[in-house]
Amino acid sequence: MRLGFPSAFAIYYGDVMVEITSKDNLLIKKILKLNSSAKQRKKLGMFVVEGLRISLDAMLSNCQIDALLLTEKAISKYSEKLEKLIEYSSVTYIVKESIFNSISETETPQGVLCVIKALDKKSLFDTIKDNGKFLALDGIQDPSNLGTILRTAEAVGINGVILSKDCCDIYSPKVVRGSMGAIFRLPYFTVDTICDFLLDNKNIESFASVVDCNAEKISNIDFPKSCVVVVGNEGNGVKQETIDTCNQKFTIPMLGRAESLNASVAASIIMWEMMK
Q1: Would you state the pLDDT for residue 260?
Q2: CA-CA to 251 of 20 to 30 Å: which in 23, 32, 80, 128?
């Protein structure tokens, strides 16, 4: 297929074209809502990814792309890479640069954006494997932290991530960008509380990360082939009820005057130790 789009800004349904030239277009309004509201993302069962690389990742991960939005500049610059993405997507929209900039969440937009159906990964956790190593996130609030944690989890080979429902929305634009595509490939799902999850899965050994000089040093922990390690909220750490439910607790010893580590940094250290 060769890209030879006319200068008109249009929606492509096969050979049928419908112009879209206004910021008041219903799709544009929907994308703005999806970008800004976790409630809308949950209600509509959709989320937005922006950028060429992550859009291609979505395609390669067999995500359902309900809409692909492109600028003419993007088509001119990335024509070869976009051909398969256009063929794969349900509908392709060509929009004005100014309209794309109004819905973009990045400082330097590439002119490529996808509206994707929410992923269903819960079935991957219906039965916890006896040899799986999992990370549990107890109330992580910062989207940048969550995105980095997901990216690192995939990189080091964590088998999956469990999130408490009071974590920030995994489909927020910052999380999606920060994950660098890990959100499509890494098994994860959300539970009411990490405590309840651990009580329902007593067959897997659990560890809580704490800021406690009396706790065992992480370097002394021999993480078994089957385990869940809990990382807590940026300000308050792991909830006490979760700590009480875990089989063991440990700490990352620190020198100097720092009282704690950034949540994503702490999680990265923990995951590295888990997978050694």
Answers
A1: 73
A2: 128
